[in-house]
Amino acid sequence: MAIERTFSIIKPDAVAKNLIGSIYQRFETAGLKVVAAKMVQLDQAKAEGFYAEHSERPFFKALVDFMISGPVMVQVLEGENAILRHREIMGATNPAEALAGTLRADYADSIDENAVHGSDAAASAAREIEYFFSNEELCPRTR
Ligand code: UDP
């Protein structure tokens, strides 16, 4: 199975609830390794650019307002099948539909404020990692 990298955000709702450590624990327990991480306060342009594919959707403005409402943690996770594995750990977009034991089932309040983001495919993972991290910030975990 391929070793992949994926991009992850702990959104402002989950940061505000002091859930950073609990969420990192889920990643690490699942065998995903953090290869880059930082806290960021997004501004409007950065959030709009990140979610540009949703710019015509009715929830776009609310989504951007939510994403700039407080700091986020952004990280790159590495592991076997990391993109799909991370999406499984996150659970469905709508927490009401998320499987028990997933991050969104346990920590999200609504489809709008749903605790975490994760890349959905290899191409988006590459684009999203580059949107937030330079190559120098990606630390190989060879030890
Ligand atoms: N979103 C929302 N209302 C909706 C659908 C989506 O606020 O009706 C937000 C939600 O924060 C979601 C993000 O838009 O995580 C991106 O939506 P997408 O369908 O790409 O879901 P994801 O990949 O995050 O599961």
UniProtKB/TrEMBL annotation:
CDD domains: NDPk_I (cd04413). Keywords: ATP-binding, Cytoplasm, Kinase, Magnesium, Metal-binding, Nucleotide metabolism, Nucleotide-binding, Phosphoprotein, Transferase. It is an enzyme of class 2 (transferase). The keyword Chaperone does not apply. Its cofactor is Mg(2+). Its EC number is 2.7.4.6. Pfam families: NDK (PF00334). One of its GO terms (molecular function) is nucleoside diphosphate kinase activity. It catalyses: a ribonucleoside 5'-diphosphate + ATP = a ribonucleoside 5'-triphosphate + ADP; a 2'-deoxyribonucleoside 5'-diphosphate + ATP = a 2'-deoxyribonucleoside 5'-triphosphate + ADP. The active site is at 117 (pros-phosphohistidine intermediate). ATP binds at residues 11, 59, 87, 93, 104, 114. Gene3D superfamilies: Nucleoside diphosphate kinase-like domain. It is found in: Cytoplasm. It comes from the Bacteria. Major role in the synthesis of nucleoside triphosphates other than ATP. The ATP gamma phosphate is transferred to the NDP beta phosphate via a ping-pong mechanism, using a phosphorylated active-site intermediate. Belongs to the NDK family. Homotetramer. This is Nucleoside diphosphate kinase. It comes from Oceanisphaera pacifica.
